[in-house]
Amino acid sequence: MNLADILATTGVTILLGAFILNSRKLLTVDSLWYNSLNFAGAALCGYSAYLIEFYPIVVLESAWAVFALTSLYRSVSRETLKFTHNK
User: Fold this and answer.
1) In CA terms, which of 25, 42, 45, 73 is 20 to 30 Å from 63?
2) Positive/negative CA dihedral, 16, 67, 65, 30
3) Where are the alpha helices (DSSP H) in the chain?
4) Per-residue pLDDT tens over the stretch 14-68
5) Distance CA 74, CA 64 (A)
6) Which residues, other chains included, contact 48 with Cβ-Cβ below 8 Å and sequence gap of 6+?
7) Coil, helix or strand for 30?
8) How many C-beta atoms surround the C-beta of residue 20 within 10 A?
9) Alpha-carbon distance 73 to 65, whole Å?
10) CA distance 7 to 43
11) DSSP letter (8 states) at residue 87
12) Helix crossing, 55-85 with 32-51: angle to 10°?
């Protein structure tokens, strides 16, 4: 197994894990963990696709990572607001 295969396998496992945890209602789509897992999985898959020069998947996974990062930012912002209001 080469580096691209390892990264892709890890990324897909993370993405599927997030999906399963969400499906079982253990993580919500707006949670910090769900968005972190989506970002990490998409970033790994995207980088793996870049390494093998499969650019359509690079675009797809990059978009996924950007959306996950945007959601992650919003999740952190909400958590910060909750923390500061509870003082």
Assistant:
1) 25
2) negative
3) 3-23, 32-51, 55-85
4) 999 999 999 999 999 989 999 999 999 999 999 999 999 999 999 999 999 999 9
5) 15
6) 4, 5, 7, 8, 11
7) coil
8) 11
9) 12
10) 9
11) -
12) 160
